[in-house]
Amino acid sequence: MESKCKLSDLSVGSEGVVEEICEGARGALQLREMGILPGTRVQLVRVAPMGDPLEILVRGYHLSIRSAEAEQVLVKID
Amino acid sequence: MSTVLPQEKHELPGYEETQSSVYAFVGNPNCGKTTIFNSLTGLRQKVGNYPGVTVEKKMGEFFSQHGKPLKIIDLPGSYSLAARSPDEAILRDVLYGRRADTPRPGRVVCIVDASNLERNLYLVHQVFDLGLPTILVLNMMDIAAKSGLTIDVTGLEKRLGIPVIACEANTGKGLLELRIAMSRAEIPCPTYDWVSPKKVEMAIAEISDRLLEGGRHSKRVARAESLLLLTEQESIRVQGSSHIVPEVMEAVLRWESGWKREGYDWRGGIVAARYDAISELCRKIVKRQRLDGPSLSDRIDAVTVHPVWGWLILGGIMSVLFLSIFTLANYPMDLIDGWVSSLANWVKGVMPAGDLEGLVTDGIISGVGGIVIFLPQILILFFFIGLLESTGYMARAAFIMDRLMSRVGLNGKSFIPLLGSYACAIPGIMATRTIEEPKDRLVTILVAPLMSCSARLPVYLLLITALVPSDRVPVMTKVGLMVGMYFLGTAGAFAFAWLFKKFLLRGETPLMIMELPPYRVPSLKSVSLHMMERALLFLKRAGTIILGISIILWFLTTYPKTPDATTSTEAISQSFAGTMGKVMEPVIEPLGFDWRIGIGLISSFAAREVFVSAMAIIYSVDQEDDEDTQPFREALLKAAWPDGRPVFTPLVCLSLMVFYVFAMQCMSTIAVVKRETNGWKWPLFQTGYMTIAAYLASLFVYQGGLLLGF
Fold first, then answer.
1. Among candidates B558, B589, B595, which has minimal Cα distance to B576?
2. Would you say residue B590 lies in a domain?
3. What kind and span of H or E run contains B501?
4. Which end of chain B, C or N, has fewer beta carbons within 10 A?
5. What pLDDT is stored for residue B629 in this prediction?
6. B269 in contact with A at a CB cutoff of 8 Å?
7. Closest chain A residue to B302 measured between Cα atoms?
């Protein structure tokens, strides 16, 4: 079964494949340059103690982004 | 020599000619670039500034295997050549030869973290476009192996056409091979090629042509630059770099607006094409072995950013830091204290008594010595901050603190400069250069000096020792008071940051896209070098500003001489300094300060720590007749108002400490802020708001304390 959701809505520990990054989202280019592109596998590793930012695993490294930015990334859960 | 660029045209602008004896070190943040740079150059480094901009210029020298001197430019770390901050703009402009003040490096050493090859290769991929002779260093091979990665180094060499060196900078493995490779007379250029999206090819052809007409000599560089111009978004231009000619910009904008109408995401297309090429390369040369369970770094993170343990560990690290400043530093401080007083005694013995002897012993030696004694504490502080940075914990601290920082409109990245400001606001303010958003950077600069820096330590220490006798009160009370002062400064910084973001410099909440590098064992050499570099900076201040002020102060407290004065207290009250202090006494009396404290405030306007030497001079003058060796604390406790009330009551000490928490009192910070904000407006504003805040806070503490009956 396949379903789509925002990267920020992934549950901790689960992963998905990036489907698209919202056009014109703030930091969209920067997210891409850091390797978050359509087709890239991402995992939500954990959430910071105060609920934000999020720690994600992408291309074998750990990246911290805020949920506001993660909301702009749509992922497909397989 | 092995320059690839045809250099038939020289008359046009641009500084394209390369120098084959100049190497550029390029790499992502956290790739170990600086550790390798330090290992190769050791102390043969020059740290300066790129003229016109506020980016640190690090140059080093080392000798090739054949004894030939080679230069290395350690360029700022970045994830991409598409610049978002002045640091990144410098990286781009030096590599493109856009700066007259820096020779265009003829050779590049790209350093990548082998355990994170794909993302690290993105920047390298952009550098390859330039076609310069390049060496690729795969650093942290040990970490890569531990995370189950096997990298085919020879395969990579073949595919790229350049030397590739496996390296573990922390243990020194591979550094000799790097040195040998850098000593080669000829270094090949990358033969690697990739396909950019078809849709942008036409645009690249046109923009390249215009660049060539505008003065670029090499087709390859022109193509690379076109790609970069199309990728950059709200690109940063910095002073001192040559401009992009208008014809080129016109073409770029025309293509971009065409694509925008079509709804084609060209930037995403270019980035994706690069990553596709990199993934393809990595598939061929990297073997990934699935490891069971999370990595060590992951397991550490499970604790260090845990909702409960995370806070405890952050608090614990801060406590250890401050505790070690109090206890560890005592031994070297006693030693230095001994040296300073024996030096003063020796001078007193060999010099004839008189004005000159007074200048040397009471002015210079006691003034400068009073500051040098705090050097051990400053070293410990710098060492700790370097340690936190190089282990990777600093990023976790930013991760934990980001939410809190976002409450006042900043992001976790401001946390690092602010934490650095606990050691000294100057490096802290300089570290704000990594904050991309100009308004956030300015707010961080404005509040950074509120973080209690090491120069306040001597003042706090003096006042705490005056406040609580050490023989009767446990050391924890002192630590508690100290932590309280640090807390007050931190809270003040947050409050003012919120105020400024709310009313003065409104802007969008900044982005926070930050790598959490794997934990690593720090390189003691790098941490020590960093510590020494910062300490030297501090000593330079002690040597110049503080020496000057000590001499001026000695002069102000000694002249004009009153021959009929019977006591030295009388003499100092007749001096220039005494007059100044008395003039301002009515203003500071509501804070509980007398004219002698006024002298201290005036003289420490240039640098806070001068307050201590000022007090030392004022009271050693004061107490000269009694006993030379009398401890400083007792001298302070003896000080009294004309009616016999003691000056340094606990409440006054507290009021004074609170004053120093908020007051600017640092010439060097003002100078740095002036340079970082390119003008006098912000440093003057900053000095004004901090002085007013200091006065009001002090007034509140003293008057409130009096009302409560202290």
1. B558
2. no
3. none
4. N
5. 38
6. no
7. A46
Q: Estimate to the nearest angstrom the gap between the alpha carbon of B694 and the chain centroid.
A: 25
Percent of all residues in chain B with a pLDDT value above 70, rounded to a whole number: 87
CATH number at residue B2: 3.40.50.300
User: Which B residues, 73 through 92, put their C-beta within 8 Å of a C-beta on chain A?
Assistant: 79-80, 82, 84
Higher pLDDT, B139 or B412: B139
B660 touches chain A (CB under 8 A): no
- Mean pLDDT, rounded, for B298-310: 88
pTM confidence score: 0.80
- B22 forms beta bridges with B71
What homologous superfamily is domain A3-77 in, according to CATH?
Ferrous iron transport protein A (FeoA) (2.30.30.90)
Q: Which residue of A has its CA nearest to B437?
A: A27
Mean pLDDT of B587-614: 81
Residues belonging to chain A: 78
Are B515 and A49 inside 8 Å of each other by CB?
A: no
Q: How many independent structural domains does chain B possess?
A: 1
Q: Which of B516, B519, B520 best probes binding to A when mutated, by most A CB atoms within 10 angstroms?
A: B516
Q: Does the CB of B307 have a partner CB in chain A at under 8 Å?
A: yes
Q: Which amino acid is at A26?
A: R
Is B458 inside any structural domain? no
The verdict on residue B46 lying in a domain is yes
Range of the structural domain that residue B283 is part of: 1-291
Q: Note whether B131 and B221 are within 8 A (CB).
A: yes
Using pLDDT thresholds of 50, 70 and 90, give the confidence band for residue B14: very low
What was the ipTM of the complex prediction?
0.94
Residue B671 falls within a domain, yes or no?
no
Q: Which residue of chain A has the CA closest to B279?
A: A59
Question: Is B626 an interface residue toward A (CB < 8 Å)?
Answer: no
CB B455 within 8 A of CB B447: no
